[in-house]
Amino acid sequence: MNRNLLLSSIFLSVSACNSWVQVTNEGEGVRLGSSAEVANCQRLGRAQAQTLSRVVVVERGGERLQEELTRLARNEAGDMGGNVIVPESVIDEGRQSFGVYRC
User: Fold this and answer.
1) Given CA atoms 22, 82, 32, 45 in this order, what sign does their dihedral have?
2) The whole model's pTM is what?
């Protein structure tokens, strides 16, 4: 019983550290930019990215969480016809907003 609990804990810890969001073909053409870079670009809208900020009781790392949110936003922006995303909010409970632009 203890062995199963230990193996489950290890699996959850490893899963919490890995990102399972893959960039789509459309998302491949989207990059992360800054507000200064998109000053002369067309705004297409907003992408709302959301993922788990913790798995069970394991808090996910900020860098991995940011990478995953960015991948999700790139995918959504690609579907909208955009090629640049710009963060418009900080991460709050696994959520972040991005502006979507075509430059």
Assistant:
1) negative
2) 0.74
Query: In the chain, how many domains are there?
Result: 1
**Which range of residues forms the domain containing residue 34?**
2-102
What residue has token string 């073909």?
A: 25
Q: How many CB atoms lie within 10 A of CB 84?
A: 22
- pLDDT band at 72; cut points 50, 70, 90: very high
Other CB atoms within 10 A of residue 86 CB: 20
Residue 81 pLDDT exceeds 90: yes
Residue at token pair 């998302």: 27
End-to-end CA distance of the chain: 57
3-state secondary structure of 92: strand
